[in-house]
Design brief:
Layout (H helix, E strand, L loop, with lengths): L1 H28 L3 H24 L3 E6 L7 E5 L7 E7 L13 H7 L5 E5 L9 H18 L5 E11 L1 H11 L2 H4 L10 E5 L5 H10 L5 H6 L22 E6 L8 H12 L4 E6 L6 H6 L6 H12 L13
Parallel strand pairs: 3-4, 3-5, 5-6, 6-7, 7-8
Antiparallel strand pairs: 1-2, 2-4
Length: about 325
């Protein structure tokens, strides 16, 4: 497992070397590479700010083991004082094979002023794991939070699970397929709400979309055990089993994961009687609204997450609504 963690660290190292190269190429060519350079450049700047914050924030519990089944760890960002705060667990994306929790430190940095406790877990990446192990580790992190968060000022009755891209897929599985949390002795009914950002929720539909564009999906296909495993690996498959209220956030200019993924998941949840708010960001792509938010604490996604986590009361019977 030490090899797995070293592999995740080297992923980040390769990312930043790639970012530097893309900056150089973009500066010289002034071509389409600029958009790619801007993406990695934004990620690099966010990471650099996050490294400084992670080193200096006094209320960080870093690299906390949370699973008896693997050596993955989580970072917990508590509030400076007080107790009873709502809790957001953020599962990072990266195509199931890239990035780590430290890269997303700025998520915590921006959300802490929204008066919540933020938890960012790692999970084992492909090729060292497939979706079952990843989902089990996200479930283990959720179970750990439910059992321990009160000691860090969080309210175990107000734990929200969230994720971006591949992290939205994995957190969606844990929120609606009951087997993952059941393995830990916990229940999906203990999750106060789920926030999915630009996620893949029906892997067969997403693979078909990519095929229509002349693209294949080798990593996703391998992670899900081939096309025959797509249905079992899709959160939308379990929407009919009920679960926590959902907020599906997606940019309508997303060329990586089309907005039909969030539209389909929200429709399936509503059909099952689950509250689901479908939130569309006009003109936003797959990651720009997230990485832009890492530099702007008034960005829409930060405000929306704050509204959800601080303001939602399951007992109030908020009506589901769509902004599209």
């Amino acid at each position: 497992m030490f090899t797995v963690m070293m592999s995740q660290r080297s992923n980040a190292s390769r990312l930043f070397r790639a970012a530097a190269l893309l900056f150089a190429l973009g500066a010289v060519t002034g071509c389409a590479l600029m958009s790619t350079a801007a993406f990695y450049g934004g990620m690099y700047r966010a990471h650099r700010e996050g490294v400084r914050f992670r080193r200096t924030y006094e209320h960080l519990q870093a690299d906390v083991p949370f699973s008896d089944r693997s050596d993955v760890t989580l970072d917990l960002y508590a509030q400076p004082d007080g107790s009873g705060y709502p809790v957001l667990i953020f599962v990072h994306g990266g195509g199931w094979n890239s990035y780590d929790k430290e890269l997303f430190t700025p998520v915590a940095m921006q959300l802490l002023p929204q008066k919540m406790v933020v938890v960012i877990p790692d999970y084992t990446l492909y090729p060292d794991a497939k979706y079952q192990q990843m989902a089990r580790e996200v479930a283990d992190a959720t179970a750990w939070v439910l059992a321990n968060i009160e000691a860090y000022g969080g309210d175990p009755q107000r734990v929200y699970l969230s994720g971006h891209s591949a992290g939205a897929h994995l957190s969606g599985l844990v929120s609606y397929d009951p087997r993952w949390l059941a393995e830990t002795g916990r229940s999906k009914d203990e999750i106060r709400g789920w926030i999915g950002l630009s996620g893949v929720y029906d892997t067969a539909r997403h693979a078909a979309h990519r095929e229509s564009l002349g693209l294949d999906s080798p990593i996703m296909t391998a992670v899900m055990h081939g096309p025959e495993g797509f249905a079992a690996a899709s959160p939308e498959t379990y929407a009919g089993l009920g679960g926590p209220p959902a907020w599906l956030v997606h940019g309508d200019a997303d060329e990586t994961v089309p907005i039909t993924e969030s539209e389909g998941m929200s429709t399936a949840l509503r059909a099952a009687g689950v509250e689901a708010e479908f939130i569309v960001y006009p003109g936003a792509g797959h990651s720009d609204f997230l990485f832009g938010a890492l530099r702007d604490d008034q960005a829409r996604v930060i405000v929306d997450i704050g509204r959800i986590v601080r303001g939602y009361d399951r007992g109030a019977g908020d009506s589901a609504r769509s902004n599209r």
